[in-house]
Amino acid sequence: MRLRTRDLPVFPVSSEAPAPRVRTAGSLRLGNHPANAPRLGIVTLGCDKNTVDSEHMTAALVSAGAQVVEDVETADVVVVNTCGFIEAAKEESIDTILEACALKEQGQVKAVAAVGCLVQRYQTELAREVPEVDLFLGIAEMGQLVAELRGRRLLPDDFVPTMERPLRILSSASRHSTFLKISEGCDHTCAFCAIPHMRGLHRSAPLADLVAEARALGEAGVRELNLVSQDTTWYGRDLRRRDRSAPLLPDLLSALLDGTDVEWFRLFYMYPSGITRELAELISRERRLLPYLDMPLQHGSDRMLKRMRRPERQATIRERVGWLRDRIDDLALRTTVIVGFPGETEDDFTVMLELLDELRFDRVGAFPYSVEEGTVAAEMPDQVPDDLKAERLERLEDHQRGLSHEANLALVGRRLPVLVDSAAPAGGEHLGKAVGRTWGQGPEVDGQTFLAGATSAEPGDIVIAEIVEAGEHDLEGVVASACA
């Protein structure tokens, strides 16, 4: 019997759970790998935090004697780093596991390992229903991957690299822009979210380790580091329980600025209640801290925020947005909201639209609520019908398009730095134009800037461009100065 997605409960959609992404590593060797080194293929599904985990795994595997290959059909071992936050992600994870098992049954690969979020939550069920998988490791066990593969004689016991082991090996998709995961887990008890069940309570990474990782990434060519966690503002609070002098987020940012040459730092998943005036002051005076904040609200009605067990209310949200905009020039604000949470009335939905209209976020990600087994919200009465969720989602997106377009139109005529993500394509609608992002466009979640006059630009270049046209999501620009 094969495991099917309907056998697993539906996970909620939130700002911490973007649409699933698939990434594979390029072919990599380190030092004195022989030609017959075991070949491992890593497939990464889901969020940016999974990408970081896979890049750490890649470094550990290459340092242990493996050759990581991009084409999983040529691999001896396939490692699937799973995602389980939303229905589409679960389907993608299970389908990918089954595809890897099919390659094993055909004799093309020797072993299949499944790791990560879906495994953390459903390891017993997965092991029972997909016995073809050789190894299951949840999030808490992923550090054992090398030892487990060695124990199965899938990695050499005596390999000694001839160079120092890297902390991370970047995926082929993120050579100049990547993510720095500063903590794991979450202390919040949001009614819709199962993240604490899968990733545990909040645990901050040591400041010195993060600076060392960021420095190495900068030396490898990274020009933009996007700081991520479940709640980035919470950094260091767990450490403060044991040591009152432990660093908090502003201390980490200052250390990253002092200890690295990375040009752009961007902050994601910033709960409004955790944003301090000290942080705003730091962003306002440090050019390398981009004037961009991702602030997940999840709703705009106080009644719904209370039912969701969110830490903020309208008064706090208004206060934070007010003094952030007063203090930080050219601040771009992004948020995410959930429509159709249990008990949401038409009045609640209208209140949310009114708040979004008042605060005028540059970008809003909106998602329909879905039930998550084991959460408080799953047992709530007054579940909203799916057709009403879809209708409200469409209304909200239509409403926000106009606001985002107005924000983009305000940029026309300005000269802005743009980080080039890809060189000019060979054809299509944007023939001859490179693709990049301004400080107000976060990777993979916001729009892009299409650049004319950038035929010599390479990914990772930063150019100054005059914005000449604005759409609802994307910008059009003309390069005004040479690459920085």
Characterization of this structure:
Helix 12 (346-359) packs parallel to helix 13. The termini are far apart. The strands form 4 sheets. Strands 1, 2, 3, 4, 5 and 6 form a 6-stranded mixed sheet that branches. It contains 13 helices and 19 strands. Strand 4 (77-82), helix 2 (87-105) and strand 5 form a beta-alpha-beta unit. It folds into 3 domains: 5-151, Methylthiotransferase, N-terminal domain (Rossmann fold, 3-Layer(aba) Sandwich), CATH 3.40.50; 177-409, Alpha-Beta Horseshoe (pyruvate-formate lyase- activating enzyme); 415-479, Nucleic acid-binding proteins (OB fold (Dihydrolipoamide Acetyltransferase, E2P)), CATH 2.40.50.140. With 484 residues, the protein is of the alpha/beta class.
